[in-house]
Amino acid sequence: LLLSFSLPEPFSWEEYLRETSSIAASPTCFKQCRVPPSNDFKAGMKLEARDPRNSNSVCIATVMGMMGTRLRLRLDGSDNTNDFWRLVDSSDIQPIGTCERNGDMLQPPLGERTQSFSKIFSFFCIYVKVFSV
């Protein structure tokens, strides 16, 4: 029994771009370093991270794991269904205290209240008790 088959032709970018009427991204568009950064993070470390569901919100996060130059992060107060990945050199992560130094608002962990919110809420409760009598 003699089987006959032909090898697929090698992929051709030029042909693909022509067939799809596409333009290749210029090499100048890519900003990655040729040498990947080192990953000195360890599981359990805390940092500030942009919430992947709301890019205007910076939250407390924990490093849950690493894979090469990637970090698996979890926003404090959430569960593993909301873990997300960031590169170690991502602008979406920063050392603890960065928000405070820059005058930005750091969101509390899910289920927690900020101190200022707690103070305002306590004052409001006292105000209501005093003036509702």
From TrEMBL:
UniProt keyword terms in alphabetical order: Repeat
MBT repeats: from-to residues: 11-109
A Pfam family this chain is assigned to: MBT
Keyword check for Transcription: no
PROSITE patterns per record: MBT
One Gene Ontology CC term in the entry: nucleus
Source species, domain of life: Eukaryota
SUPFAM superfamilies, A to Z: Tudor/PWWP/MBT (SSF63748)
GO biological process, one term: negative regulation of DNA-templated transcription
GO molecular function: chromatin binding; histone binding
Alphabetized InterPro entries for the sequence: Mbt, PcG_chromatin_remod_factors
Record-given protein name: Scm polycomb group protein homolog 1
